C-alpha cells in the first residue's frame, strides 16, 4: 500500500506517527520525559455497564459483564477514551505540571483497550548520569525528584486484600481516599502471580525466572546506581517484595 498514511492502523499510518514523535522529542529534548500506562477495569466499572443492556441470561454478574463487553466493544472503547480524556485534562495536566505529551491506544488479545504515552513536566531537574556521579547535590536532587514521581512503598502492608474489586465501588462508597488507595494497590499493584506467557522465562540452565525480577528485595532508601552497562538504574525504596511501581 503506497498511500496508506491516511488510513488509521496501517503500517504507513504508524510510520507517520512515529516520525512525528521523533520530531517532537528532538524539539523538546528527551530530558524529563516519563512513560505512562493506563488500563481499563472494563469488567468492573459500574457506570460502563449501565450503558449496556445486559441480556441477563448469564448466571453471574461477572459473566454478564464479560458478555456486555464482547457485544459492545465500541461502547467500552468510547467509555475508556472519555474517562481517560477527562482525567488527563482535568487532573493530570495540572498535577503532573505537564508541558507536552503524546499517547496512543492499544488492544490486548481479548480486545481490552489500554494506552501508553510519554509526558514532559515543567521544571524537571537535569538527569545527566555523568553529573550525578560527580556531584552529590545533583544526585540528591534527581533522587528526590524521582522519589516523588514513583513509589514502591505499600502504605497498607498489613491490610487485607479486598475480595471485591475496588473499581466496582460506586462514587458514594468512596469515603476515605487513603483506604481506597490501599485497596487499589493491594488488589491491583501486586505481582504475586508469575505466569508463563506473561513474565516467566527460562534461563540458560533451564530454570524459570520472572522477567520483572519479582519478588524483589526490601530497600530502605531510594538510590540510583550503575546498571553494569554504564547506564543509571533507579532502585526505589520498597517495603513490600511484590508491589509494582506506581505513581
Ligand atoms: Zn513475574
UniProtKB/TrEMBL annotation:
Pfam families tied to this protein: Helitron_like_N (PF14214)
Highest taxon, organism lineage: Eukaryota
- Residues annotated as region Disordered? 228-247
List, for all copies, the residue spans of the domain called Helitron helicase-like.
3-117
- State the name under which the record lists this protein: Helitron helicase-like domain-containing protein
Q: Which organism is it from?
A: Rhizophagus irregularis (strain DAOM 197198w)
For this protein's source organism, the top of the classification is: Eukaryota, Fungi, Fungi incertae sedis, Mucoromycota, Glomeromycotina
Amino acid at each position: 500500500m503506497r498511500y496508506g498514511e491516511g488510513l488509521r492502523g496501517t503500517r504507513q499510518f504508524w510510520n507517520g506517527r512515529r516520525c512525528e514523535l521523533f520530531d517532537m522529542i528532538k524539539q523538546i529534548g528527551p530530558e524529563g520525559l516519563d512513560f505512562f500506562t493506563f488500563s481499563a477495569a472494563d469488567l468492573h466499572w459500574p457506570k460502563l455497564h449501565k450503558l449496556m443492556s445486559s441480556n441477563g441470561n448469564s448466571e453471574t454478574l461477572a459473566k454478564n459483564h464479560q458478555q456486555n463487553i464482547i457485544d459492545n466493544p465500541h461502547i467500552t472503547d468510547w467509555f475508556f477514551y472519555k474517562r481517560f480524556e477527562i482525567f488527563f485534562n482535568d487532573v493530570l495536566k495540572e498535577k503532573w505540571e505537564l508541558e507536552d505529551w503524546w499517547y496512543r491506544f492499544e488492544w490486548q488479545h481479548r480486545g481490552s483497550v489500554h494506552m501508553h504515552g510519554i509526558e514532559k513536566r515543567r521544571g524537571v531537574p537535569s538527569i545527566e548520569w555523568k553529573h550525578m556521579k560527580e556531584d552529590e547535590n545533583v544526585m540528591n536532587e534527581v533522587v528526590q525528584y524521582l522519589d516523588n514521581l514513583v513509589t514502591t512503598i505499600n502504605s497498607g502492608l498489613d491490610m487485607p486484600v479486598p475480595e471485591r474489586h475496588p473499581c466496582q465501588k460506586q462514587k458514594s462508597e468512596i469515603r476515605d481516599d487513603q483506604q481506597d488507595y490501599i485497596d487499589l494497590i493491594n488488589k491491583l499493584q501486586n505481582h504475586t502471580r508469575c505466569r508463563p506467557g506473561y513474565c516467566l522465562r527460562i534461563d540458560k540452565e533451564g530454570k524459570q525466572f520472572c522477567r520483572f525480577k519479582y519478588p524483589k528485595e526490601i530497600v530502605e532508601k531510594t538510590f540510583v546506581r550503575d546498571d553494569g552497562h554504564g547506564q543509571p538504574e533507579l532502585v526505589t525504596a520498597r517495603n513490600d517484595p511484590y508491589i509494582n511501581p506506581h505513581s
